[in-house]
Task: structure prediction
Amino acid sequence: MKKLIIFLFLSFILTKSFAFEIFALGTSNTNCKNADQAYTSTLNDLLAQDKINATVINAGIDGDKPTFMQARLEQSIKANPNIKIVIFEPGPNEKNKRFNIGASGDILAYLQEQKITTIYVSHQAIQSSEEASEMAKKYGAYYYGHWIKDVPIDVGHRQYDQPGQAGHMTVAGCQLWAKNMFPLLKQVIQDKNIN
Result:
């Protein structure tokens, strides 16, 4: 009986192995605060539906700042060489734009140095789309746009949990963000021949 249980467990692990991993590094936006990780969960569902043998790791932490993200990014990459793509969303928690952009640039430079394909997701409170696009280009990253691109600002898609702002996305908002992101993610996988 014990051998059967071990066999079934190992079979489960082997069938759940993935060709590569996508590391979603970011803030409460990536984590989908109060929305049950709907963004990364939906990306995983879309990958499975398209029979792309990859998984998205949710590395979004509520309240995080780019200056603190780099250490955990480096640790994660060293511990897991199967990470082939990073979706990087630095967020607006670091209100000082110079510090936010400086630390974000350091992360993008590190990822470029490590030859890890990166999708950069900006925040309108920190950079204009033009500024963010130029920054992505500088470090060889793909640019998605602002995290709320093409997501309606209504109670169906936003939580209105911030004073005077639409705030975090709802489950529906996070799912829509993932659906909007997915074509770029597929393009990146194809462009870079990642498998």
